[in-house]
Specification:
Helix content: 25-40%
Order of helices and strands: HEEEEEEEEHEEEHHEEHEEEHHEEHHH
Strand content: 15-25%
Number of domains: 3
Length: about 425
């Protein structure tokens, strides 16, 4: 029996869960997948059964969660409830996920990839989501210099800061040869880490500050090719002693996902230093770290009205700045630098119409459109449906976040840039 089940059942507070199910073969949504939700540790306690729609998504399910206040300050009581999901779909191997984490007053999104039966060599073992880093017992970060002396060592590094298409995550410490390497889209990696290391109930500016620190750290590993220059074949590890906690198969949160989508090409800089800063941090409760960001402290500052950059400068100093990468890899075309809306026209409109119409062939809730280069009401409606499916603010306007989300989904279902 889950020791937190009674607490979750008794509280009047709830969070919500949406399950997104796609095929591992082509990233297409899987319709009519059946999802059973139980309390983790009590497989007979079926709370809800839901079915995915044409977009491979379940309806939002309200689930009991501990009081929201438990996630707003350090404490000994687990601030989230845990649920087990069992997913079945015709023609696919079933998937079991233990430990989906639900916070009060937040929307959790559980991504699921299902393997076609004919492609499955051995039955998949259940996915187990480990404890959140602010609640579980994880090793603290081993301190490193925030800027790598690449000029002195003669290492070959990238000539400019580029957002990679894929992060190769070594799921263990660097020296463990048995740990699996996972190929993870960059944005998905950042969302997973942020959902594993901070609480989605925190103020938006606090979330932005922490996401910026996570992205800058990650892009430093990419820019300096830190592990490859030591003879390893991965970008980063899932060990908190060396990098950040990434948990295979874990759920993410809508509030964190939207922040990442809005700023995913950003990182942190100091004057005169080209590489992204290796922004290290600690929880600030069990572990203290002078000159690094305190996660719990950043929450307190956010509650006091500090902006993201104010929070970052409070910890890292007044000469810390937000920068943007010069290039985003793996997308057909970069954002034009301005929003596209009804009345716009030209090649950028035509290009995004072509991508949207291709996506609409798979996500049938999106109306088909003609790529005529004119942003009319039909295009705006297609954009609204796309935004609704992919957890973006529904505006009918193509902003930075929507442009790159369209690009990423298009690439995912056409596989035009796999591993490029």
């Amino acid at each position: 029996m889950n020791p937190y089940m009674t607490t979750a059942q008794e509280t009047a507070e709830t969070g919500s869960l949406q399950v997104d199910v796609v095929s591992s073969e082509n990233n297409y949504p899987i319709q009519d997948a059946e999802i059973s939700i139980t309390y983790t540790g009590d497989p007979n306690s079926i709370i809800e059964k839901v079915t995915t729609d044409s977009s491979g998504q379940s309806a939002n399910v309200k689930l009991a969660a501990p009081p929201v206040g438990l996630s707003l300050s350090p404490g000994l009581v687990q601030p989230y409830s845990e649920y087990t999901l069992y997913i079945t779909a015709q023609g696919f191997e079933p998937v079991a996920i233990d430990g989906t984490q639900i916070l009060a007053e937040t929307e959790a999104i559980q991504p699921v990839k299902m393997t076609p039966i004919q492609d499955a060599i051995t039955p998949d073992t259940p996915i187990t989501i480990g404890e959140h880093t602010l609640y579980g017992d994880y090793p603290p970060k081993i301190a490193e210099a925030e800027v790598k002396p690449i000029a002195e060592t003669g290492e070959i590094v990238l000539s400019r800061v580029v957002v990679p298409q894929t992060i190769i995550v070594h799921d263990g410490v660097p020296t463990d040869p048995t740990a699996t390497n996972y190929y993870v889209p960059y944005g998905d990696y950042i969302k997973n880490v942020a959902s594993s290391e901070i609480y989605a109930t925190w103020p938006r500016e606090t979330i932005i500050a922490n996401v910026l620190a996570i992205m800058s750290f990650t892009l430093n590993r990419v820019y300096t090719e830190w592990y490859r220059n030591q003879g390893y074949d991965f970008t980063i590890t899932s060990s908190t002693a060396f990098d950040h906690k990434w948990i295979y198969g874990r759920n993410i949160y809508e509030s964190i996902s939207q922040v990442v989508d809005e700023i995913f090409n950003s990182y942190l800089s100091r004057p005169g230093i080209k590489q992204p800063i290796l922004t290290q941090y600690c929880d600030g409760n069990r572990v203290t770290c002078p000159r690094w960001m305190s996660q719990w402290g950043s929450n307190t500052l956010g509650e006091q009205g500090y902006t993201a950059i104010d929070i970052l400068r409070y910890y890292y100093g007044s000469n810390m700045y937000i920068n943007t990468a010069e290039q985003v890899s793996g997308v057909p075309s970069s954002y034009p630098g301005y929003e596209l809306s009804v009345g716009a026209s030209g090649d950028k409109v035509r290009q995004v119409q072509e991508q949207l119409d291709t996506i609409a062939g798979v996500y049938t809730r999106i109306p088909r459109i003609t790529a005529d280069g004119v942003y009319g009401e039909n295009t705006a409606e297609a954009v609204r449906q796309f935004q609704s499916i992919f957890n973006l603010p529904v505006t009918g306007v193509i902003d930075f976040a929507t442009w790159y989300k369209i690009s990423n989904i298009y690439v995912g279902i056409t596989r035009i840039a796999e591993y490029s």
